[in-house]
């Protein structure tokens, strides 16, 4: 019984020397857990969608638990407010997950051409 307790304690505190039988068993158990657990445990994660990648998105914190995104204008299509906001969400959500847009504003260069959008969002 004492030998069994010493073996279990060695597994818990990872005191076995490298290359020993017990060390190899521990490493094998860890690898089995890593590769087999997703089949039996729902980690509630979502695989990344295979959407076309945006040309340029810059993410900055706004200091109030939100985020500011700078989205390239070439990634946003639509003429109305709702279609532009939906397009901004399509670009932002693969990067930041489920976010709500607080407000957004267009950014223009010195000649007045639309170059991007500043989007304030939070989770």
- Derived from helix and strand composition plus strand pairing, the structural class reads alpha+beta
Strand arrangement, major sheet? 1-2-4-3
What is the total number of structural domains?
2
Q: Let me know the average pLDDT.
A: 87
Helix percentage range: 25-40%
How many runs of DSSP E, i.e. beta strands?
Answer: 4
Descriptive notes:
- It is a single chain.
- The protein is α+β, with helices and mostly antiparallel strands.
- It folds into two domains: 2-40, no CATH class; 57-122.
- Helix content is 39%, strand content 24%.
- It has helices at 2-13, 21-40, 81-96, and strands at 57-61, 67-72, 100-108, 114-122.
- Strands 1-2-4-3 form a four-stranded antiparallel sheet, covered by helices on one side.
- A hairpin with a 5-residue loop joins strand 3 (100-108) and strand 4 (114-122).
Secondary structure: elements and pairs:
Layout: H1 2-13, H2 21-40, E1 57-61, E2 67-72, H3 81-96, E3 100-108, E4 114-122
Antiparallel strand pairs: 1-2, 2-4, 3-4
Short description:
This protein has 123 residues and is of the alpha+beta class. The protein has three helices and four strands; from the N terminus they run ααββαββ. A hairpin with a 5-residue loop joins strand 1 and strand 2.
Features of this protein?
123 residues, alpha+beta, 2 domains, 4-stranded antiparallel β-sheet, rod-shaped
